[in-house]
Amino acid sequence: PDEGPPRLERWEFDLTSGRVTTETIDDRPQEFPRMRENLVGRPYRYGYSVAAGSALEPGALLRHDLRSGETVEHSGAPGRHHMEAVFVARDGTSDSTGDEDDGWLLAYTYEAEADSSSVVIVDARDMSAPPVAEIRLGTRVPYGFHGNWCPD
To answer: What is the mean pLDDT of the chain?
Structure first.
């Protein structure tokens, strides 16, 4: 069935009443939503996703501040598209107790003209800045790749 373009929603399940509530956080097309992994199932402020349509820069990384409602966009260079981003705490651990946004986003990026990919590292607190580092891979990583961070 045609459900329209993907949008960012939050679903909450009340295990006592069995009730499910949904909230649209951003109705612009996007996919691959992530958050800081050690906060799954607990309150959190920031979520991350990848733009997937003409309403946003295609392939841009997005940071959603769920408290303020603000969305910040990190666009790659022209002709480059980011894939799913993974949050890594600044101290490199998966269970850091630092500020929720104190870390980096790691994302594969595809450059169409060169038909190759790289990994970009973006400061999660300063999404408007250029990447702090880029690792060129010399090969293409297919769209839709999923990854995780393992500190060890």
So the answer is: 88
